[in-house]
Amino acid sequence: MESDAVTSTVVIMAGGTGGHIFPALATALEFKRRGFSVQWIGTEKSMEAEIVPRYEFPISFIPVAGIRRNGIGRLLKAPYQILLSVYRALKILRREKPILVLGMGGFATGPGGVAARILGIPLVIHEQNAIPGLTNRILSYVADCVLEAFPDTFKTSAKRLQRRLHVTGNPIRTSIKESKFYNPQQPLRLLVLGGSRGAVAINQIMPEVIQGCKGAVTVWHQAGKNNIIECQQRYDVMGVSGRVDAFIDDMAEAYKWADVVLCRAGALTVSELAMAGRPAILIPYPYAVDDHQTRNGNYLVKKNAALLVQQSVLSSSCLVSLLLDLSRDPQRLKYMAASAKSLSKPMATADVVDYCLGVCHG
């Protein structure tokens, strides 16, 4: 659905974590490709303040912050902070005069969504996780269109939402594609991801795991910039070699290299695994709000595209056993890869933009 409104502006609200920011960036780039101007609303002390300007999208800030799990002090300040944030968002929207406001998660989405409703600007929300966040649960009552990455995320609200609810998948970077041939190697190539900031529990256990595999597994490990020195030292102490990076810039190349991926179960990661068509061992972050990472991971697990191990029962012997079993069963790996690919949503970015424009055009 192309548009001839070259000068029209779309406001995107997203921030806090890469799981919100990168799908929103993919969507912003698609809007830009179609000739729209994009204005971002975020918070000044979060990741979006650093990442979004790199893509040359203008960003405005509102002073909202998280409320859940942040103590009584933050809770008492919340009413004032929310009102101030709505006021700031109103000023931004009046200045930009957008044809649409798209909320994709993070603290700014709530006040920005309220401001859009006050001004009568069409509002679309997109939920990346398999369990909706508090802000999106609230905004789903007033949004013109509700988009979900995983089926049945808004299952309890499906009757209320009716035709306003659509499954799109998660917009992801276009460079992540399945390599032409999936042919598991010997030794097994294991890509370990703990997120851009690393995952301490995973970092600590993996050197012992690789040692226990006795040469059957080779590793490429993203440890996070705050953990890379300690992680590398653990590999050295265990006497095993592997590639250890603070951050992997070219994730498309990393997925192409990997036979198996061991990682958390963030929404974006799960969607990328499906798009790349890679088997996975998922270790959900145990402190995620509403345990949404377990629900995210089950999207792959139910179709035999991934294995899931809770951190509470995580052990080196458990992972060694799983990896050795997989290394000896290339047919199983190929089946898991095909199952993952079957769950991918390659048109997710275009679909999100199309639904947004559909709201604008009535």
TrEMBL record:
Q: Which GO terms describe its molecular function?
A: undecaprenyldiphospho-muramoylpentapeptide beta-N-acetylglucosaminyltransferase activity
Q: Where is the Glycosyl transferase family 28 C-terminal domain?
A: 190-344
Q: Which EC number(s) does UniProt give?
A: 2.4.1.227
**Which EC class is the enzyme in?**
transferase
In this chain the Glycosyltransferase family 28 N-terminal domain maps to 10-147
BP terms from Gene Ontology = carbohydrate metabolic process; cell division; cell wall organization; peptidoglycan biosynthetic process; regulation of cell shape
Which UniProt keywords are given for this protein, alphabetically ordered?
A: Cell cycle, Cell division, Cell membrane, Cell shape, Cell wall biogenesis/degradation, Glycosyltransferase, Membrane, Peptidoglycan synthesis, Transferase
> Which InterPro entries does the annotation name?
GlcNAc_MurG (IPR006009), Glyco_trans_28_C (IPR007235), GlycoTrans_28_N (IPR004276)
NCBIfam families from the UniProt entry: murG
**What name goes with this protein?**
UDP-N-acetylglucosamine--N-acetylmuramyl-(Pentapeptide) pyrophosphoryl-undecaprenol N-acetylglucosamine transferase
This chain's source organism reads: invertebrate metagenome
